[in-house]
Amino acid sequence: MRKLFLDRQPGQRHIQTSLISLQEQFHTESDLIAITKNTRLNLEYDFKRRPARPTERAVQGRLHLAFDSVPWRNVAEAREAIVRFKSWSRGQGRPEDKGYVPGRLLKTLPDFLAWQAYHTMAAPVRAAGVGLRGDGPLGHLYRQFLRALVRGEWGLSLVDPATGHRSTYGEVTHWLVTIGFPDANVDDLKNAKRNTAKLAPQTIYLNEDVARLLVAIVEQYPGFDLEQAMHPDHLMEAQSLFS
């Protein structure tokens, strides 16, 4: 059991054998028999209490996430965390689909910090009228940046003020691929310009992945206005990346 827990992977399935339930036995007039099911392995925390003071501890020669827990302030908070963690951990789409986001597990401290960032920003982003997807803060910045770029907002423009050259969607896509978004394509920019693609100021939360993309954006587009993009609680930390 310990090995199964330590080696678990997102989306892993598990063969489970059990006796038929008394209710099913009665309704189907069946004998007491064993049934086998191929079920999704679920060994993640149930979030009935709020995780606190996360750290990593050694288990059988490897590090694994560990944390204390404290009560939620109310039942609604607990239910929201349970639902959001289910969405975050299961990912989005299939590996062959565009926009595929792999599932996540809470095995390391970076895993926990990624989940915490996703959970923390969920309510403010939703209040701004924008849905938060399974790719969390990084995906949110990616889409908001493209929406601002194609609309000439937040100090961004497809036109280079120094040379007057107007970048094509293809050129922007090529740049996105070079900085670590291999699935980027011109449809991302076309979708960003749609009226339904809402631009939500001050909803960007900073974490390690977001910081890397911010640095790449500012290097390519020095006029990017962090004050319009960043959540006020994360603005100073974002500005410190360039000081």
Could you characterize the architecture of this molecule?
The structure is a single chain. The protein is α+β, with helices and mostly antiparallel strands and 243 residues long. Among the domains are: 1-43, no CATH class; 136-240, no CATH class. Helix content is 44%, strand content 14%. The strands form two sheets. It has a two-stranded antiparallel ribbon with strand order 1-2. It has a two-stranded antiparallel ribbon with strand order 3-4. The relative contact order is 0.10.
- What is the helical fraction, as a range of percent? 40-55%
Q: What is the mean pLDDT?
A: 89
Helix/strand structural class: alpha+beta
Strand content: 5-15%
Shape annotation: elongated
Low-confidence stretches: none
Multimerization status: single chain
- Order of the strands making up the biggest sheet: 1-2
What are the secondary-structure elements, in order, as H or E?
HEHEEEHHHHHHHH
Alpha carbon gyration radius: 22 Å
**Sheet bearing the most strands, described?**
2 strands, antiparallel
User: How far is it from the N-terminal to the C-terminal residue, by CA?
Assistant: 49 Å
Number of strands: 4
Total DSSP helices? 10
Concise description?
This protein has about 240 residues and is an alpha+beta fold. The chain contains ten helices and four strands.
List the helices and strands and how they pair.
Elements: H1 2-6, E1 13-19, H2 22-28, E2 34-40, E3 50-59, E4 62-70, H3 75-90, H4 109-127, H5 136-151, H6 169-178, H7 186-192, H8 208-220, H9 226-229, H10 232-240
Antiparallel strand pairs: 1-2, 3-4
Helix pairs in contact: 5-7, 5-8
